[in-house]
Amino acid sequence: MCSSDLIKRRQTGQEDTTQSEAKKAAQEILNENAKKVSPMAENLRTYVTIGESLPQDVKDILKEGNVYLNKIRGFNDIIPDTEHFSDQLYTLEATVLSIFKHVKEDPESVGELRRFMSYYLPTTEKLLQSYVDLYHQNGDLSNIKNSKQEIEDALDVINDAFEKMLNQLYQDKSWDISSDISVMKTMMKQDALI
Length: 194
Prior knowledge:
Strand content: under 5%
Number of helices: 6
Shape: elongated
């Protein structure tokens, strides 16, 4: 709106209506974008069900985990499946889901997720939001291309790191299994069973 139109509206008392209409329109745009990236509560998918018998700290992490998983899916829904980035997001979603499923199965492992929940996931979310913002920019600017490529490369690193974290969570269980098998074999030998 040009300044002469604004002056005319002020003189005729239409300015308040125009500003409130502009605020409403801006809020509607923000709400639509929020729905795309951060699904509303009624659209949230439950990836990991939360059992009543779980400790409260585990329940809290699983609730937060479901929110992050919905955000990852929301970002992926915005990116066409033909894009390499979409494949990376499917991998990310699957790995993060596996991490939370492990925590549900082994609530004692929740302590190993402190940095994951307080830094890695929020920073990953921020990078994904940046990618989506850049994806919707018009133009073929080299800065946009470079930034998107940096985020894609970073997502490969993130996926590798999260997979390594998942392996570490299961490593303790593997050691316990190996130890149990070794003890059982020793006892069977002593009892002349093998």
